[in-house]
Each structure stands twice: as structure tokens, then as C-alpha cells.
Amino acid sequence: MNRTPTVGRSTSTRVDVAILGVRVDAPVSRRAGAGPSDDGHVLLGGHGAALPLNPDSPYSISGGRLLLDGADLGLEAETIARPRFYDLRTADGVPYEQLARLHGRDVLATTVVQTCIRYDEADRCRFCAIEASLTAGATTAVKTPAQLAEVAEAAVRLDGVRQMVMTTGTTNGRDRGARHLARCVRAVTAAVPGLPVQVQCEPPSPEDLGVLGDLRQAGATAIGIHVESLDDAVRARWMPGKATVPMSQYDAAWDEAVRVFGRNRVSTYLLVGLGEDPDELVDGALRLAERGVYPFVVPYRPLAGTLAVADGVGAPDPAVLQDVTERVAAGLRALDMRGADQGAGCAACGACSALQAAGA
């Protein structure tokens, strides 16, 4: 590679390791699933980072430091220890690790429904492998509210978990799975009062937008309604099933979510590397921010079991990712929006993006 990363927890270094990955034995890691990549979870400068585990990367972690071709970059780095709650099982014998996973240092994450109505190859999002982990036996198809409450209590008590993320595969109902999410949130917050929880789902149908209020009343702190791209041509190419949901439906859901949850308690993933024009991506991201929706800018990264990997699609150019990240971060700072202020969720964690390194 030609660029020399800036020493310290800079955007450049953070972008490089997000794309090139790192050589390290990471006790906390994941493969396949809903995304964003086959990651190992580490701390860089005390902040969580989800990085591709790449045996050919020039970056490595050794002696508590991040190294580039063996040279110390002046940044503390360490892996996340395997959590103790992974050793437990429910009364009916289901391993806790199959119900929820540790992300970063202190985030508990689960996919409450591990199937998706859009998983037929003609409809599937090309970056997603939500059902691959189910096929591999690494998870269960549907997590019950009682199971998640049990796991959350143990994860908080044993491992210091401080927030939780609940996502779902899209279901056939008009609510797109939001009502099951609400039942799960209600059970978890009853078992662990005060635990911040983010929920993630597709936009409910226009006739069922009230379910967003149900999620808030159940105890959810924040919500992610993920569009991945604002370009309709990109959406049709990369996520043909989700692209049948018009942008007007996303707009309505985002606006209602901001009304219900509040400014900067709503977020959406925007993936860099799907072919969207970078200037248009930045402009669209900042329009969302002005409406109170945090645009969580994340690189597309190859994920095992996806259609994109089968097609040989690689990660984006680091220079493009850095440019987009820095411009979006500058706009977010001007609007006084920071991911950490979401309270819970992907933007609050920040491990899959370089936005926090860029000050947002």
C-alpha cells in the first residue's frame, strides 16, 4: 500500500485497518450473519473496533500496540476477552452464545429472527448472509423474550455489558418484525432496568407506523432503520428485495421515528463501496442528519456466504472511504450530532465505522 497512516487514532489509520484488517487471534469474533463483515473485536486507543481478521494484513497487534509491518504506530491495541456469559446455557439447553453475542467491549447484540423474507437469491441483499449462521448451527431461528432477558441479565452481571442491540430479519407482517422486537425489549428492560437498547428493522408499512411508538413504549432507547444506499439504482442492484420499499416509505418511517424517539436517536447505515457517487452519498447523509437521523457511514466489506463475495466484489478504496467519512463527520460536528449520544446501538458503539475517529 502506498499511503502511510498518520500516527495516533487518526481517521487514516482507522480507515486502513477497517479495509485491510489485522493479524491477531481475537477471542471475540463472528463469521457470516447479517453483517457487516467477518470481524474480530479489539480496542484501539481504548475504543471498540470491529476489524476483518486478515492473515495477509500489514497491520498486527502485539504487546498491547498496533503495528504496521512491525513498526509501532503509537496506538494502544488489545483484543476483547471472551465473555463469561458464553459458558452458560438456558434451562432447556440452548447456549447463551447462540442467542446473543458480545460486540466490542460492552455491547450485547442479537438477531431476534434469523430468517428473512428477502433471502431468496433474486431478492437477497448482496452484502448479507443472515441465514448462513443459522444454517451453520451457530444461532437459533427465533429468540424468545424470556431467553433474551436471561442472557442480558447474565451479560450485564458477569461481563459489564452496558448496551444492547436487537435486529431482525424482515418478516411477512406489516410491522416487518417490529412487534416481536417490542416484546423482546419489554422483557429485557424488565430484567435489567436501565439497560439502553437499540432496535433495528425495515420501515413498517404506512398503515402500521404506530408500531414505532410501541417500540419506544416497550423501552427502546434508539432505533436503526437501515437503507444502506440513497441511490435507487444502487438499491436495485445490491438489495433488489428491499428496493421494492420506496424511499418515501423510509422518509415517513425516519420522520415518525425522530418524532417518537427524538433527534439523534434514529440512525441508518450508509455503505461506502456499493457504487454510489461519493458526493451524492455525503450530501444525502447530511440531509438525513439535518432531519435528526444519524447517517452511520460504514465500508462495504466482503462477508462470507454473501452473493457479493461469490461475485468477487472487494472492499472500497480506502481513500474514498476516508474522504466520505471525514466530510460526513465534519457535517455531523457542525450539527452537534455524535454517535455516542445515540445511547445504544451501532452508532453509539462505533466499532464498525471510522466516524468516531473523525470526531463524530
List the secondary-structure elements in sequence, H or E.
Answer: HEEEEEEEEHHEHEHEHHEHEHHH
Radius of gyration (CA) equals 19 Å
Q: In whole angstroms, how far apart are the ends? A: 27 Å
**Main CATH class:** Alpha Beta
Can you tell me the number of structural domains? 1
Helicity level? 25-40%
**Shape from CA axes?**
globular
What is the CATH superfamily? Aldolase class I
Number of strands: 13
Query: Mind describing the biggest β-sheet?
Result: 7 strands, mixed
- Average pLDDT number: 93
Contiguous helical run count: 11
CATH topology: TIM Barrel
CATH architecture: Alpha-Beta Barrel
Return residue spans where pLDDT drops below 50 for at least 5 consecutive residues. 1-9
Helix/sheet category: alpha/beta
